[in-house]
Write a structure and sequence with these properties.
N-(1-d-carboxylethyl)-l-norvaline Dehydrogenase, domain 2, 9 strands, Rossmann fold, single chain, alpha/beta
């Protein structure tokens, strides 16, 4: 570990990486806006949003109250609802930029097809980065599989995933955070460092796209389980057990798909799991807490609270079945969310499982 004195002697980000890379971030929700705000200090950033009123608020008033209440956005952050303008910003001759997709899994394929239609020369971009977490509810595909299919098998555009333990509101407020960029392309990893690495955000790199995505998907399911436990007032011991065994499920599933085991002890595995399973800002945990207190998922969703863990839990279980992998916590979450099995019954079933080696 680097001694504190040495850490204080490190140069600030702008001195280390003076080049301002053009960045377009697609998606003006909470996470997209927070990332754009963070990058605005290091890059030439344009944020694209669907709704003209949100874009006008960001541009004129430097706020996005719907998603980030009480947060003041940088005046350098520009926004547009013109998709062609958003793509043009990062494909200027001689100034290749970074395209970041802040869309959810459900919108990822459509956005990638739009990229393929607008960006005819892959060399015009430094690369494409996505930030969504989960599996597609219909196909069971992970984000990189969706991107590969939508962009086309012969498209050489560099690509990767940016993930890690992060609440959008804290990032937007400039609180410290550490994220991981996963890609097989060294250039795109350096570009993400150039854009985001600063005093408030530390960027780590890996080539394990599969492991990073599996961690991001399954931690949401495990957070629902921990929320159910908390809603039932089962105590800290139960929560610790769920986090630990949930991590084992994440690693088992990921390794069967070819992920590196070490990834699950890092930021996008254990780190993101702990944050999402215990943090009060976690929507997945909130859904679980309300389920544990006796509410129905349909009623919770009808009130506007969404959670990726609820959207992808069935797809995770189906893919695990195809791999012949047992995921008892995921199975319990699905039983509670979709099969009308009470939370108390699910807990009893988990506790009655045969003893086994850890």
């Amino acid at each position: 570990m680097t001694p504190p004195a040495q850490q204080q002697q490190q140069p600030s980000h702008p001195q280390t990486h003076p080049k301002r890379i053009p960045v377009t971030l697609l998606g003006a929700g909470a996470w997209g806006t927070a990332l754009a705000a963070s990058a605005a200090g290091q890059g030439d950033v344009l944020l694209w949003g669907r709704h003209p009123e949100s874009v006008e608020e960001i541009t004129q008033h430097h706020t996005n109250h719907r998603y980030l209440p009480d947060v003041r956005l940088p005046t350098a952050l520009a926004a547009t609802n013109n998709l062609a303008e958003a793509f043009q910003h990062v494909t200027q001759p001689g100034r290749p930029g970074l395209l970041i997709l802040g869309t959810p899994v459900s919108g990822l394929a459509d956005m990638c097809r739009a990229i393929a239609a607008h960006v005819k020369n892959p060399q015009a971009l430094l690369g494409v980065i996505w930030t969504c977490k989960g599996l597609d509810a219909e196909s069971g595909q992970l984000p990189h599989e969706i991107v590969d299919a939508a962009l086309g098998p012969d498209n050489p555009m560099p690509r990767g995933v940016l993930s890690g333990p992060s609440f959008a509101l804290e990032v937007a407020r400039g609180l410290p955070v550490a994220l991981t960029i996963a890609s097989e392309d060294s250039g795109i990893k350096q570009a993400v460092i150039d854009v985001f690495h600063c005093d408030q955000m530390r960027i780590y790199t890996t080539d394990d796209v599969m492991g990073v995505e599996v961690g991001g998907a399954l931690k949401n399911v495990m957070a629902i389980a921990c929320g159910v436990s908390d809603g039932l007032s089962l105590g800290n011991n139960a929560r610790a057990a769920l986090i630990t065994r949930g991590l084992a499920e994440m690693a088992r599933f990921g390794e069967a798909l070819g992920a590196q085991s070490a990834t699950f002890s890092g930021l996008t595995g254990l780190g993101d799991l702990v944050l999402t399973a215990t943090g009060d800002l976690s929507r997945n945990r909130q859904v679980g807490v309300r389920i544990g207190r006796g509410e129905r998922l349909s009623d919770i969703l009808a009130q506007g609270l969404t959670a990726e863990g609820a959207r992808c839990a069935k797809a995770v279980l189906q893919r695990a079945a195809e791999l012949n992998i047992a995921l008892p916590i995921t199975q319990a979450v699905c039983a509670t969310l979709f099969d009308n099995v009470s939370a108390a019954q699910v807990v009893a079933q988990l506790m009655s499982r045969h003893a086994t080696e850890e």
